[in-house]
Amino acid sequence: MHIPDGFLNMTTVAATGVISAGGISAAVKIAAKKIGEKQVPLMGMLAAFIFAAQMLNFPVAGGTSGHLIGAALCAILIGPWAGIIIMSAVLIAQALIFQDGGLAALGANILNMGIIAVFAAYFANSAAVSIFGDSRQGKLIGAAAAGWSSVMAASLAAAIELAVSGASPLGIVLPAMMGIHALIGIGEGLITILVVSAVMASRADILQLERI
């Protein structure tokens, strides 16, 4: 999912960088007005968990592997705007420390996994809970929908960015990205279910916090 340097043209690098910078700026302003004492440690724990979890890869198919994105967990546990801040911090640290994703492509990676994935997860979870109810079953279905949708939305954005940059024709990169990430999204959905289920069992009060 992390796009390395050399795959995006300068127009895409600049456009995604500007959009991501605007998204982070808006997230900081909104979070600063709403954040409370209980949300601060939760944001820190989520950032640490997602940073560590993204280091663990699981096999998918054809020798490929996937890893947790974490956008769904952010959207469900603390809300989309705080989620943008958390995901951006994780992606920036990964790029600077581990060269996971290019520095020039950092704006695109933040846009895909830190903004689009977070909001896709937020709306998918909200839609599922509104349909299936705010029961335990409804929340777990929402977690699954959020996890899968976040991966698919991020991979769709990455495929479009690669295509408009001329790295690969859309007819090739789109089905390749969407196909493999449909499987990775199942893993993301399962991990999101496990974490949300554990939170409901041990710290249900977290799910009652105001979403930012």
UniProtKB/TrEMBL annotation:
Subcellular locations according to the entry: Cell membrane
GO biological process: transition metal ion transport
Transmembrane intervals: 7-28, 40-61, 68-98, 110-133, 140-160, 180-201
Gene Ontology CC annotations of this record: plasma membrane
Main location: membrane
Claim: Methyltransferase is one of the keywords in the record: no
Entry protein name: ABC-type Co2+ transport system, permease component
Keywords: Cell membrane, Membrane, Transmembrane, Transmembrane helix, Transport
Membrane topology (UniProt): Multi-pass membrane protein
Record keyword Transmembrane present: yes
Organism the protein comes from: Dehalogenimonas alkenigignens
UniProt cross-references to InterPro entries, sorted A to Z: CbiM/NikMN
Database matches in Gene3D superfamilies: 1.10.1760.20
